[in-house]
Design goal:
By secondary structure, the protein is of the alpha/beta class. A 7-stranded mixed beta sheet has the order 14-17-18-13-12-20-21, with helices on both faces. It has a 5-stranded parallel beta sheet with strand order 9-8-7-10-11, sandwiched between helices. α3 packs antiparallel against α5. The chain is globular and about 85 Å long. The chain starts with 23 loop residues before the first helix and ends in a 14-residue tail after the last strand. The model has no long low-confidence stretch (mean pLDDT 97).
Length: 542
């Protein structure tokens, strides 16, 4: 596509609503929450133009009230997955050949639907399904999702406008084709925005998609499906299946037409998928694109020059927002001895002040972790810390799953920089702190860099510019998203493209043109205007 041939609206970040007392947005989301809480929805498979109810169902419950059933969803069999693949491939030609501006219009409309009539519903669904407080739901399910859709359209036009040079006797063009086959999108529970973006970004570039949402996010995924349908995504372009993850993945990867995977989830699962793709490589029509964002053991390191209150605030926000269930959440911190007394006092005060309970109560900062498996894992590590001589819990440490899966925000201080919770990804509201000697700043930087197999996010707090430069250089491979004097969470589309390396993923930077380029297969076209009629070059003479 030629640059400037069409001008799409300039993308701007969606403003975050405040949900202050007596505000209209608060009233709207409370009404939506109350209605959806008792809705008992029934979510089918979406294959082509059909809504398929298999009769084999699972209940959806809220993590903060796990006995309350909010609906059911239907599980696919292998034949349904094969049907989804067939429908996707049947839809591919028309979708791939649709003018790019028509595809763009669909997803721009989806963004406006979320910004307006769907905002309260998608936020309320995320509060119910994933136990996010209203602020976390707003910045995720509304703002980030809207930003993904709007900015991806802008990035797409930039990509299509990037054309090679030509001269007077030839015209060179670059055509950005969709992949030959279909894309498989596997999405996580923790971000509704990611659940929507992974299938949408591939589809926007002309690809057809098989989408498997997390079992723990189906309730809010249903709202995404409704938005896509109202926005005009044609039947068969994004096919949605639920059920046994291993069966669905094996069926998808067995298809000769599998062309790529867009994944966010655990490192172990991603590595297993990569291995299976390698085993099947001789079977595929093309080399599949493998794009994944996985785990993290994200860090905060404070220099002796840092502001103690800023360090403490960065730790509690970075570690405990959304119960530490962001892949970017801070879970290990390194604090110098000179700052530790002030930081410790502020950490204990702030953490004890956090209210915990249902997201329906807007006064609660902490709600429940996603399911019983996560709860039990976190509780076991907390119990172990209570026993270990090289660890001390200075605040928190309690938990209760009688009503919901509630884990108190917990801070462990260890004398062992390689203590298990300094190295193991927990995905919950547990922060472990190692207090280092001020003189060992450089040694501690080395420790931060070598402790974890992950390299997703990290932060340095310092008022010394030399120390900031030193940390930025030393930790260049330790985090794909690096923060200076800020918590290591909260990447904004169009501002901080997100992704990490090492065991944290392929670092293809969601929220940038880099990611969209992975869903295009460029074709160079050269047209010569005066075609030679003699093979001889001048060096051959007459």
């Amino acid at each position: 596509m030629l640059k400037g041939f069409f001008h799409v609206p300039k993308a701007v970040n969606e403003p975050v609503k405040g949900y202050a007392p007596n505000s209209p947005e608060k009233a709207a989301v409370q009404a939506a929450y109350a209605k959806m809480w008792n809705s008992k929805i029934d979510v089918p498979l979406y294959i082509g133009s059909e809504e398929i109810r298999t009769g084999n169902t699972k209940n959806m419950t809220a993590p903060h009230d796990h006995k309350h059933i909010v609906g059911t969803y239907h599980l696919a069999e292998k034949s349904h997955v094969e049907s989804a693949i067939a429908n996707a491939l049947e839809s591919r030609t028309a979708w791939a050949n649709m003018a790019w501006e028509q595809r763009a219009a669909i997803f721009l409309k989806a963004a406006e639907l979320i910004a307006g009539p769907y905002r309260a519903r998608i936020n309320a669904a995320t509060m119910i399904a994933q136990s996010k407080n209203i602020h976390q739901a707003e910045i995720d399910a509304s703002c980030e999702f809207i930003d993904f859709l709007r900015f991806n359209v802008e990035f797409m036009t930039q990509i299509y406008g990037d054309q090679p040079n030509s001269n007077s006797d030839m015209w060179n063009r670059l055509e950005y084709r969709p992949l030959e086959g279909f894309v498989y999108a596997i999405t996580p529970f923790n971000f509704t925005a990611i659940a929507g973006n992974l299938p949408a970004s591939a589809a926007m570039m002309g690809n057809v998609v098989i989408w498997k949402p997390s079992d723990s996010q189906v309730f809010s995924a249903q709202i995404i499906i409704e938005v896509f349908k109202e926005a005009g995504v044609p039947d068969g372009v994004i096919n949605v299946v639920f059920g046994d993850a291993l069966m669905i993945t094996d069926t998808v990867l067995a298809s000769r037409d599998f062309a790529g995977i867009h994944f966010t989830g655990s490192t172990h699962v991603f590595k297993d998928i990569w291995s299976k793709i390698g085993t099947n490589i001789h079977h595929y029509k093309t080399y599949p694109r493998i794009v994944g964002e996985t785990g993290g053991k994200d860090f905060i390191i404070a220099h002796p020059s840092a502001n103690a209150k800023q360090v403490a605030t960065g730790i509690v926000r970075g570690a405990f927002e959304f119960q530490g269930q962001k892949c970017s959440a801070a879970s290990r911190s390194y604090v110098p001895q000179s700052l530790w007394p002030a930081v410790k006092e502020q950490l204990i005060t702030d953490t004890k002040s956090m209210k915990m309970g249902s997201p329906e109560d807007f006064g609660n900062f902490i709600t429940a972790v996603i399911h019983e498996g996560s709860f039990d894992k976190l509780a076991s590590f907390i119990d172990q810390a209570k026993k270990d001589t090289d660890a001390e819990i200075i605040v928190g440490g309690n938990y209760d799953k009688s009503v919901g899966y509630f884990i108190e925000p917990t801070i462990i201080v260890t004398t062992n920089p390689h203590y298990t919770t300094m190295e193991t990804e927990l995905f919950g509201p547990v922060m472990t702190i190692f207090v280092y000697e001020d003189a060992k700043w450089e040694e501690t930087l080395e420790l931060v860099d070598t402790t974890s197999e992950y390299a997703l996010t990290g932060a340095v707090f310092s008022q010394d510019r030399y120390a900031i430069e030193q940390a930025t250089t030393k930790l260049q491979n330790a985090a794909g998203n690096f923060y200076i004097n800020d918590k290591p969470t909260g990447a904004v589309v169009g501002m901080q493209p997100f992704g990490g390396a090492r065991a944290s993923g392929t670092n293809d930077k969601a929220g940038s043109a880099l990611n969209l380029l992975r869903w295009a297969s460029p074709r160079t076209i050269k047209e010569t205007f005066i075609t030679p009629e003699n093979y001889r070059y001048p060096f051959l003479g007459e």
